[in-house]
Records
---
Amino acid sequence: MGSLQVIIASALFYVLLPPGECITGGKESTPHSRPYMASLQLEGKHNCGGFLISSQWVMSAAHCFQGGIKYKVVLGAHSLSQAEDKKQTFDMAAVYNHPDYNKENYDNDIALVKLSQPVIESDAVKPLKFQRAGGSDPDTNVAVETAGWGSLDNLGSRPDKLHEVTVAVIKSSICGRSNSYGESFTTNMLCAGKPRKDTCDGDSGGPLLYNGIAVGITSNGGRKCGSTRKPGLYTIISHYDDWITRTMTQ
């Protein structure tokens, strides 16, 4: 096969790849531009995300804590591997999964982590505001943002540095269709995505932001990241306002 034929064949291969077989469409974040981001790590390796909501509390996804897993919580990171002087690492003093979390369909997929001690706030470590009950959650087709150190593709390639992506809220009735999530999709969930733009494995627990406020928690998705049939699922934070307040003040 001639060189021109090889180039054409290669181009066709990438064009014809189904959604999710390429990168998930994000970009590297500006270092420390998202100072609320937390990396939940096991033996020094990133496993799930989270985000700082007060000086001693991190919000994440309940499915990240099944089986009594105890993480180190790293804040102030951009690169996971480099010894950045802005990083702060904490043990978990306690973790609270929502009592009604359903591991079958990921309903009520929210958790709160109390850190072993308060953070030292800096330009790289700051809490993020989250949506309270009565606030305005994003409408269909509205642009929302999320970030994490999760896989860049369906082959499991993980970035060393924080990445972010902008997606759009998808109508709930579409995600509740039988060829999407069907009856597993509940009123506590929001779905968002764009073709080849999505969260992926390892992004769980990170925030979904609308106008700079966390409105959702990265929860679940289809077997292929970037799929238009099964876009990313996010737990709607405002539905848990009372539980969050009770947990953080007990």
Note: The chain has two domains: 37-127+240-248, 129-238.
---
Amino acid sequence: MQALILSIGTEILLGNITDTNSQYLANHLKDLGIDVYKMITVGDNKKRLKNVLEEADGKYDYVFMTGGLGPTEDDITKEVAVEVCGLDNELELDKSSLEMLEDYFNKKNKAISINKKQAIFPKSATILKNPKGTAPGCILKSKNNTKFILLPGPPHEMTHMFDNEVKKYLESSYIIKSVTAKTAFLREWDMASRVDLTGDNPTISPYATDNGCILRITAKAKDEKEADEILKKGIKRLKNH
């Protein structure tokens, strides 16, 4: 499975804040057997964001998007993603999300009129709860079967949502299991000629560390027993080299 990680926010491009969200997502997605093919940062510009999403649609299994889910005019992530997925005619006010917003602001004694747009989603969307802030996330599926996963920008909100909502979604139809193996002498550049890295289940991915090259073998299966059998095949492939 292939993924694009897309961080949205002009403040990132200006160097005002550091994008730690992309690093966090990439680090956790590899353990789920999802290969991150590219990371991109786009400013708060509707045309540029739409171009990136249209190019990604159908090319990747998942597009993980962080930022731009706030209540102001420059928070355009959901609006553009809905348009690219062709879900404009499904938009409706989600009562559960609105109730969470009302509860959040009642506790803080603030008005919520400007925030109501954060509770509007396509009917087919999977809504991701955000108990750490005001911006719920969501998962949208395009006609080309790409799943756009929209997450909030503040790192403490994004990490909580990913750990408690997104991982459950990704793991709901299968399990992912990984093991690692350390090579004695081979360097990363030498792997392609020495080790068979082809195949998508299990996947075998090398990465370099200060202590040598590590191979991560990852299996996707319907249950743990099947995953163990797939991992054994991957380990056998390594031993043959």
Note: Residues 2-169 form a domain with the Molybdenum Cofactor Biosythetic Enzyme; Chain A fold (CATH 3.40.980.10).
---
Amino acid sequence: MNFKFAIPALAVAAAFAAPASAAIPVYAPVGTINATTYTFTADKTGKLEVYYLGGITVGYSNTLTVLVNGVERSATPVLDAAVKAPGWTSTWGSYYSFGSVTAGDTLVWKLTHYAPAAVAGTVIYSDPTLNTSFGGINNVFSADYAGGDFGVPTGSYTFVAFEDITGRQDPRSDYPGRYLYNDYDYNDFRFAFNVVPEPATWAMLIVGFGFVGFAMRRRKATLSSVAQ
């Protein structure tokens, strides 16, 4: 799977996500801001692949991009989603490629809102330190994921879900982190990603294994000759 650190707020030790499960992960406790933040890192060299897992916020239009070591990339095709109204432009379970990455690359996911008008232009990141327009609130939840939903192949994925934070303070609340349209269920824009070695990488691995096998056989033959 893709290696990531999960850092609980006010904690000093990193923790790893729970083991993968067959069902789409669900955030709990709903209604509270996720206290765990995440740093996503490519665990291998290969193609960064994403499967869109939908969302439930009515009338929102969003586009997902990724910052690889700080450089922004779009998916092929572009991963944009208009949820429920006027209809999905990205089908649940659809596949997207974000190009090649190298083991150790840092990945920061970026969600840009285009509709409704009240949130147009709002940008939120998987790294809460970049969410300066609304006080650095953490707006993602992540866990291990085994695929199998909406036609997504079974495998080892990292699941990520965004909460639709608008950046506008709710006048009905005196809590400084309570923004409009937030119920903190972290299921408004969901996707899963992994890194798949490309054919050239597989070829290099196979050649490498071949050399190791040859060296071991040669060493065994030499030892047998000495023993005689």
Note: The longest strand covers residues 71-82.
---
Amino acid sequence: MRILIVEDEQKVASFLKKGMEENGFTADVAINGESAKIMSGQNDYDLMVIDIILPDINGLSLCRQFKDENPERPVIILTALGTTDDKISGFDAGADDYLVKPFEFRELLARVRVLIKRFSKTDSKQEKLIFADLELDIEKKKARRGGKEIELTAKEFMLLEYFMRNRGRVLSRNDIAEKVWASDYSFNTNVVDVYVNFLRKKIDRGFETKLIHTRVGMGYVFDESR
């Protein structure tokens, strides 16, 4: 497995490269966005770790470009910017996970392994999910309800897919964070609430039958009725 680390701080980059290689990965370092673009064109990376603050380009723009080129290649944002708004901006740019500096390397390593495992199973997934009048095309990354196409961000799409694969089950915020954001109990679950609200507005607003329901003190359930 080959990983591209986009990080301009030499000590951090060396630390990440050494840690990844000690755990069986091949790791390359790009110190700026332009170098990352060149290296991405020359190598087939399985995952990318990108800092937001780079000397020549915003890491979110770089993330967005790489995800547009290959949606099935996971990206982790690794940055000192750690507010809820920062994280939402990262996920909206297409990031699959977001880790705030300072961090423990073993946590980053665990997230890398989870994402690689998750994306390696993509091809075996059912191509379409259908529930009530909602249809999710996994291969084409499109959603429709009542015949109307719904525009979703990458993270909203993943959240909806998780809901549809677990319809009728009560899903806690920690369950959702672990499966959709590859994060453990330390994850800020406010981000989950924000994204559920985004998704609810897109797939339930204007429809008599609501599909996303809140279970107070427990989490959320995806179903035609409470």
Note: The mean pLDDT is 90.
